[in-house]
Amino acid sequence: MAKSKRFFMYLFLSIAAIVSIFPFLWMVVSSTNKSVDVTRGRLLPGTHLLDNFQKLLDTTDLQLSLINSAKISITTTLLALLIASLAGYGFEVFRSRSKDIVFNILLLSMMIPFAALMIPLYRMFGKISNVFPWMGIDTMTSVILPTVTTAFLIFFFRQSTKMFPKELLEAGRMDGLSELGIFLRIYLPTMKTTYAAGAIITFMSSWNNYLWPLIVLQTPQTKTMPLLISTLGSGYAPDYGMIMIAIVIGTIPTALVFFVMQKQFVAGMIGSVK
Amino acid sequence: MKKGIALLLICLLMLTACSSNSNSNSGSKNTGNAAADTGTAGNPATTEPAQAKEITIWAWDPAFNIAALEVAKAEYAKTNPDVKINIVEYAQNDIIQKLNTGLNSGTTKGLPNIVLIEDYRSQSFLQSYKDSFYDLSSSIKGSDFADYKAGPTSLDGKQYGIPFDSGVTGLYVRTDYLEQAGYKLADLQDIDWNKYIEIGKAVKEKTGKALITLDPNDLGLIRMMIQSAGEWYLKEDGKTPNIAGNAPLKEAFEIYKGLTDSNVANVHADWSQFVAALNSGDVASVPTGNWITPSITAEASQSGKWAIAPLPKLTANESVHASNLGGSSWYVMNVDGKETAADFMAKTFGSNVEMYQKLLTDIGVIGTFKAAAGGEAYGQANEFFGGQKVVSDFAAWTEQIPSVNYGINTYAIEDILIVEMQNYLNGKDIDSVLSDAQAQAESQIK
Amino acid sequence: MKKTNSSVSIRTKSVLTGWSFVLLAVILIFVFYFYPMLQALILSFQTGTGSNLTFTGFDNYSRLLSDKTFITSVKNTFIYLLVQVPLMIVLALFISVLLNDSKLKFKGFFRTAIFLPCVTSLVAYSVVFKYLFAGNGLVNTMLLKLQLVSAPIEWITDPFWAKITIIIAITWRWTGYNMIFYLSALQNIDNSIYEAARIDGASASRQFFGITVPLLKPIILFTSITSTIGTLQLFDEVMNITKGGPGNATQTISQYIYNLSFKYSADFGYAATVSYSIVIMIALLSVIQFKVAGDKNG
């Protein structure tokens, strides 16, 4: 019986994996085909990979966009994890009635669609531009600032902290560690998998962020990857082969971060077995 | 675990290394720009001439309007080498979002000097943000361009836009399928849409191919039909919905239903499927704008199998064999550098006949500048289309396009009609379809 | 007396330390969310195209109630919410428990594969979905070959099936994403709890409902709230796969906001009003979810 259960487990996971991977594979295959074949849904690899790549390099500044996106996403991720985990920890460990109220107010910020905040935010950065040009419109700072703190991530860290064994805190206090020391030396290493999940999620949403960078970035020098890809798709006769290779390249960093970060899951598991 | 962290750290270090490198570059660039900007904002009187001699243009298609801009830029540089022209490429929807946000927030920072806007949308921008656009009446003459372009590009008698490409339509057909069904290209020169459906049935019977492919979310076909009869979704004032009692619109709806009912129409859901349907030979014809040509000729194996017939016409309202789909025009924004921008436009797209020849031969742009609608390039035979003089045909049709006022609500009304079209296809009575749409449009549009 | 005194000062100190942990986040959220939100609220009482705005009181709000497109969008959004969110959460939970099995082979492969959809670019996946679910696409071809259907299903152009397609698309894209949260939480659970249960002879399903679900409750609550919010603001999938069609059969509230702001003549005032209708709905639903989950810690 256990054996057949195993079998169905693998079968189920395999089907889920194939269904999940298929569009990704199709994308990779399409990047090797010419535009006409992509629109026909050709499933076999073609020979146009280098052509498509060359065209992409000729028509866009790929390297610049990759670097722009990397700068923004890495900075956002590191800052976001720090800010949100401090806050999530603070809200849960130092619970008080007033903090709970503040926390619930913060949650409200998740509820409004970004489209509604766009105009006021743009106005705000327009004004900032006149005083502090380095953080005004068309700067990296203007992309990062409104997206770096999310109630979502604070909420996530707080919920995860609920499962954090409180005895460890007491032990830390007994050892005479400062509150920040407890956070850095005990909480942070224990919650590795939480940080890994947070990093994956934040990096991904920052890397793929489209609407706000589109509005606030103005010059070709600041263009990010999603903006570059979006530009390729318009026009009367888009080249789908070229678009596909751009998309594949644009997906690699997020996939890579996931690969690297998932080691943290494995590490976390070994830790718990031990 | 250690390995994982180490790997990640290395990645981070590498990325920050290259980023800090370019950071200093772009950083200095940014502050340079910003300093110049705050300078002019703080004291407009001392605007240095050097500042005004740099202009930025937004457009969206590297193979089409951006390529045209590059030609114009090179032409202009011959006489004005001191002007720096930055061409920035965004997707069309992205331009609309940026323009709307920028104009609405009241800060002119970040706006371009010249922007390309689709004709269907231009009035909504001009009327909503009139002061943000620069009156070009003294630089160009609206009457130099195809008549139908006057509506979208002017407001209150002032010329704001420089008309660019023609969206003149034609009926692209597969002559090989036609012949199998017993028709020749000559049979299609003067037909109405009912005859078109009839031909479609014969084609379907003989070849098994569909006559046309339709996107249920895009009523481009309806728009072509009603403009060929000189009507639009809105009355001539550009504001009052014109749906119930609009005879061409009613006939267009009936033809649309005729196409689906007689089983000669395929369905597609987006642009790539549309292009795929043409390239794979699944459909025998496509009535659309001339800008589809490069997408059709991309499938080289079909060379010689296509031809372009005049657009079929409606029976109502003296409909003609010419209409428009899409097409766009240039607009100069009312920001620093507007004089330079206007001068650039006037000397290139506003007057340069030779440049238009180059645009046609090099890029395939069929312009709307009347004086340029002749010459060698226009008379050339196109081998892909069986030696047809495609461009001179399109140029002749461009002159016949009836002029209508697209107004400010084309897309809002179209979305209402798309829903009602579904109801109509499912059996709702045509008159109540149109009167319901009229009622909803009136309540929604203020 | 002395004792209370010193305990008061310790408490003040601990209160201060607590606030200093959360201060930065609170400031940033107030500046970059609540200030613009307030401005949007003001905007929602104004009307006019473009920048010519005038105050109209509650006109925009009463317009909402008679706006057919808005009502259809709300209905559609709730259909997605009621069908898709529970489906996805159960699926994600199930997969993450399977993947957490210490004896499972190829764990890394399965995990990566199932997570891949949410890193795949939206553009790519919408093109793929449209191709897969087209009238003559791969899905129909397979269904016909297996003789599960007699005629091709109109996945994208039929009002009912288009909704199903959207639900499949969201589930496909976001199941792996939610799985990551469950996995990260599962890894934090001490394995010895399960070992103890196994020694006591608890079956797998008993372990699942007796240990896993209660321990994961905070995270399940978290994902169900964020998924609810995500669905109520659903935009990307619909915009890219069906554009809200056929007609407005798949249109969502967020897409309507987008249309009001950018597709039609820009009416930012009314768009802000529609946005606030989402805020109100989300706030109500979140309260209900907290109550249902019975999480007194909130």
From TrEMBL, chain A:
- Presence of keyword Zinc-finger: no
Q: Coiled-coil region(s) at which residues?
A: none
Bilayer-crossing regions? 7-29, 72-94, 101-122, 134-157, 195-215, 240-261
Does the keyword section mention Transmembrane?
yes
| GO cellular component terms, A-Z | plasma membrane
Q: Which domain of life is it from?
A: Bacteria
Biological process terms in GO annotation: transmembrane transport
Q: Which keywords does this Swiss-Prot/TrEMBL entry list?
A: Cell membrane, Membrane, Transmembrane, Transmembrane helix, Transport
Q: Where in the cell is it found?
A: Cell membrane
InterPro entries on file: MetI-like, MetI-like_sf
- Record Pfam families: BPD_transp_1
> What range does the record give for the signal peptide?
none
Q: Which residues form the ABC transmembrane type-1 domain?
A: 66-261
Topology with regard to the membrane?
Answer: Multi-pass membrane protein
What PROSITE patterns does UniProt report for this protein, alphabetically? Answer: ABC_TM1 (PS50928)
Family affiliation: Belongs to the binding-protein-dependent transport system permease family.
Write the protein's name: Lactose ABC transporter permease
Origin organism lineage: Bacteria, Bacillati, Bacillota, Bacilli, Bacillales
TrEMBL record, chain B:
Query: Where is the stretch described as Disordered?
Result: 22-47
Short name of any one Pfam family annotated for the protein: SBP_bac_8
Which residues are the signal sequence here? Answer: 1-22
Keywords associated with the record: Signal
Where on the tree of life does the source sit, at the highest rank? Bacteria
Asked if the record carries the keyword Signal, the reply is yes
Keyword Chloroplast in the entry? The reply is no
Task: Give the protein name, as stated in the record.
Answer: Extracellular solute-binding protein
